[in-house]
Every structure is written in structure tokens, then in C-alpha cells.
Amino acid sequence: MTATLDESTVRPATDHAVRLSGVHKTFGQGERAVTALAGVDLDVAPGEFVCLLGASGCGKTTLLNLVAGLEKPTAGEIYLNSSRPAVMFQEAALMPWLTAAANVELPLRLAGIPRTERRTRTGELLELVRLSGVGGKRPHELSGGMRQRVALARALASALHTGKDASLPSLLLMDEPFSALDAITRDVLQSELLRVWSSTGAAAVFVTHDVREAVRLGQRVVLLSSRPGRVVQEWWVRNLSPADEEATVTVINQRLREVISSHAAA
Ligand SMILES: Nc1ncnc2c1ncn2[C@@H]1O[C@H](COP(=O)(O)OP(=O)(O)OP(=O)(O)O)[C@@H](O)[C@H]1O
């Protein structure tokens, strides 16, 4: 069963949460055309946490938008075996006139879930992101970190809702969600995200510029080339010792620099 925003370009997969096969994306036409992605092949297993790394402008956001069904690939196929993917951006993008709880509840309302069930789910999700006490506050009354927690709870509400797709695994797409936060808040939220992710069983595709963040969060780190983006290398980074984690960060940083400088020299 497919559950996407655009059923004509995103097809069902069986053994993966999402599979991209030869995906190209070009914006515009003629001399002004910009090719953002050129032949991306990528599989993400159900429940897997994949971090996407690459230079600025290499097409990371474009890739997430394609998987979310917000854009159509110019060529290639995207296969999805997930409930409708949930998307989380750099900015929390909460509705300022709604309370934190009402923001989390919104996707459940839009999915037609009855009020009692909505309220219960919202309470559970706020508890999951450790915001039980502030459900009645509006976004401007919350810190940046708290707003991103609300955004995470809202994303989970839309990914995990008990609609017709409830039996499918879910998929979280995150585009640098912590990059606007200070270092300490970011560190706390990275731990919280891992806790929430492991308790939900959702697959996650997390875009970042930060190699250390990618190695800390991901089970796999996927490096895209400079624009046009395609997968150039990947590293399995699950359960590394602190020493191996440090060594892996160094290796990936070196490779990222090579990718950026080869593009600059081209
Ligand atoms: N709607 C659009 N129309 C035209 N060009 C676009 C559009 N969206 C993205 N692009 C171009 O596609 C390329 C890839 O953009 P994208 O935002 O996906 O990169 P990114 O890797 O996410 O960048 P960053 O890390 O800086 O956020 C860029 O050159 C961008 O200008």
C-alpha cells in the first residue's frame, strides 16, 4: 500500500522504508536549468537511522522533499513502504496562535481522529518529548529547544497517527532540525531524539552539515557529492566505541573536504 502526497511518483516498496533508484531532479529549463540530484540510489531499512551529509547546495533538502512527495523527480523512482512521512525542518514552524498541545494535535485533527483519542495521543507525545507541563503555552512562551521538541512531537503525531496507514512502518524526515540551537540544547535534543526514535521504531533520514552530529545520531552516514548530488560513500557507524567514533569523524571530515574541493576545482 502506498501512502504519500504524490502517488504518481512514489511507489510502494516491501523490504525498505524508502528506496531511491536513479533519482534525478532538475529545476527549470534550458540555460537556467539547475540539476540538483543526478542519479541517487539509496535504500533505508524500516527502523533505520540514516544521516545525509554533503556540501551546501548539494541537494539534501531536495532529496527530502522528493521522499516527502513535495516535489517530483525528473527521472528515476522512489519506492515507499511507510505511512505518510513526517517532516521536521530547521525552524519549528509552529502555528503561533495555537498552544503547544494544539500544535501537536493538529495533524491528528486533520487525519479525522476522534477528540478523545487525539487528546490521549497528544498527552503521550508531549510526555515523550518531556513537555507535559507546558502543553498550554503558546510558541512565543517557549525556548527554541522547547519549540523544536513540540515540532518533533507534531512530526511524530503525523507519522504515527492511527489512520488507515497504522499498520505501516513510519518514516521521519528531518532537515537540520537542530542547527539553529545553541550547542548545549542541541546536545540534549540529539539524545532525546535517539530516545524517541528507538521507542517508536520509525525509520529516520536526518540531513546535517555536521559530521559529528551525523556520526553520533546515525546508524549509517551517507555522503552526497557536491551539486549535482549523488551518493559517493557511506559508513556504518552503529555502536562505535568513543575512540572509533572520533576516528570515523576524522575520516568523514577528510572525505567531505575532498568532495567540496574537487567541486571547487572543477
Ligand atoms: N525550487 C527550486 N527552484 C530552483 N532551484 C532550486 C529549487 N530548490 C533547490 N534548488 C537548487 O537546487 C540545488 C540544491 O538545493 P538544496 O536546497 O536541495 O541543497 P542543500 O544540500 O539542502 O543545501 P543547504 O545544505 O545549503 O541547505 C541548489 O543549487 C538550489 O539552488
Automatic annotation (TrEMBL):
Stretches assigned to the ABC transporter domain: 18-251
Entries under InterPro entries matching the protein: AAA+_ATPase, ABC_transporter-like_ATP-bd, ABC_transporter-like_CS, ABC_transporter_ATP-bind, P-loop_NTPase
Keywords: ATP-binding, Nucleotide-binding, Transport
Coiled-coil boundaries: none
PROSITE patterns: ABC_TRANSPORTER_1, ABC_TRANSPORTER_2
Molecular-function annotations in GO: ATP binding; ATP hydrolysis activity
A Pfam family it matches: ABC_tran
Keyword hit for Lipid metabolism: no
CDD domains for this protein: ABC_NrtD_SsuB_transporters
PANTHER family reported for this sequence: ALIPHATIC SULFONATES IMPORT ATP-BINDING PROTEIN SSUB (PTHR42788:SF13), TAURINE IMPORT ATP-BINDING PROTEIN-RELATED (PTHR42788)
Record's protein name: ATP-binding cassette domain-containing protein
